[in-house]
Design goal:
The chain has 387 residues and is mainly beta. Helix content is 14%, strand content 38%. α1 runs antiparallel to α2. Bound molecules: ligand MTE and molybdenum atom.
Length: 387
């Protein structure tokens, strides 16, 4: 349970006065989160990313300096669309559940909304984030709401040979493999075991609003703990199959190629992008009354600690903001930076998980072995000038 949920429940127990408190508390989440102090000044990074040349596939990238809330407002949330961007009339839309199921289903949005509602605060990061100089803020955190997938699959009755759950979007393009041209919808799959995870949602709501069309309305998959690509938008069909799915976004794109050294031999590996990796970034440097503070975010696993290095100094422990906590959401952190010397500085952060695993340095073998840009979870260094 989130600590904030407990607070909310306590307030509810206090009756009418509590309800006013709930409204205040929810407003406070949006206003005060991502530690910021009244009257502080944000010092812009010197290494501003170049403009995004990706011609519409990635849109609406925010700047890290603007982030001032734990939950990313919908209009500040980045968007990725590899094909077209359908705007779907929910009235005629259905979610089909078919393939290896005892009872194929065709569900209206109203029918899905009548099912059990479940929420999750989840940080969604594109696996390509930090893969290009312009792509450094392809991440956001929202309170997603919908109905859990597992009970629906149970109701449809997965037949014994079914091992793979494929999620098809309504957007489509033409793909060519071995000179075979074929129209394809955007699609990704999960193994049946992964799809039955109770956290996975068929989502129709984002931060308390109807899911906006660019984010997949009327329905998208929300797969907490996975990279962005798993979260299929504009869902139209869920298909149970008896073989692994090998479509473009599972087996050709979003495939990480590594050149690993194994006992004196080079082993080339190709693996499909899957679960999020441990990561953190310095988001901004602020100044108030002459005192500096470094603020950032950490995610991609059970983050236990975050450390920050200024120039070649020793790693200092940042303070994690525990006032907003959710298993699949980023953690915000800050570090006071007293006596910041005038001039240019390099600021690096690293996250450490509950098992003691450390976010790798950019020049570590794990990152150096990677020959593709996806899953770029190396430590991020930003540059700032102190006046
Ligand atoms: N149907 C469909 N779903 C999709 C995509 C897409 O192109 N089509 N892009 C994926 C990728 S690569 C990412 S990173 C996330 C981005 O989600 P957002 O646009 O809501 O931020 O959506 C995923 N779901
Ligand atoms: Mo992505």
């Amino acid at each position: 349970m989130e600590p904030s949920e407990k607070t909310r429940r306590d307030l509810l127990l206090q009756g009418g006065r509590g309800l006013a408190g709930v409204a205040l508390l929810q407003a406070a989440w949006l206003v005060q989160a991502f530690p910021s102090r009244p009257g502080e000044e944000v010092i812009p990074w010197l290494d501003q990313p170049p403009a995004n040349p990706s011609a519409g596939a990635v849109e609406n990238l925010p700047q890290w300096e603007e982030l001032s809330t734990w939950l990313t407002p919908n209009d500040k949330f980045f968007r990725v669309a590899h094909y077209n961007k359908p705007v779907i009339d929910p009235a005629g839309w259905r979610l089909e559940v078919g393939g290896l199921v005892r009872k194929p289903m065709s569900l209206t949005l109203a029918a899905l909304k009548q099912r059990r509602r479940q929420e999750v605060v989840y940080t969604l990061e594109c696996a390509g984030n930090h893969g290009f100089p312009w792509f450094v803020a392809g991440i956001g955190t929202a309170r997603w709401a919908g109905t859990p997938l597992a009970p629906l699959l149970k109701e449809a009755g997965v037949l014994a040979p079914g091992i793979e759950v494929v999620f098809y979007g309504s957007d489509a393009g033409e793909e060519e493999v071995r000179q075979i041209k074929m129209p394809q919808n955007f699609a990704r799959s999960l193994s049946l075991a992964d799809a039955m995870n109770p956290n996975i949602l068929l989502c129709y709501e984002m931060n308390g609003e109807a899911l906006p069309p660019p984010h997949g309305a009327p329905l998208r998959l929300i797969a907490p703990g996975w990279y962005g690509v798993a979260n299929v938008k504009w869902l139209k069909r869920i298909e149970l199959r008896d073989t692994r799915y090998m479509g473009r976004f599972m087996a050709r794109d979003y495939v990480t190629i590594r050149q690993e050294q194994q006992g004196g031999e080079t082993l080339w590996t190709e693996s499909s992008v899957g679960r999020s990796l441990l990561k953190s970034v310095p988001a901004k440097v602020t100044r108030k009354d002459g005192a500096h503070r470094i603020v950032g975010a950490a995610w991609g696993g059970p983050v236990a600690r975050v450390e920050v290095q200024v120039d070649d100094g020793t790693w200092a422990a940042a303070t994690i903001d525990r006032s907003q906590a959710a298993e699949f959401a980023w953690k915000l952190w800050s570090l006071e930076w007293p006596n910041a010397a005038p001039g240019e500085h390099a600021i690096t952060s690293r996250a450490i998980d509950t098992q003691g695993k450390v976010q790798p340095a950019m020049d570590s073998p794990a990152i150096a072995a990677k020959r593709t840009y996806w899953e770029s979870n190396g430590q991020v260094t930003r540059r700032v000038r102190i006046a």
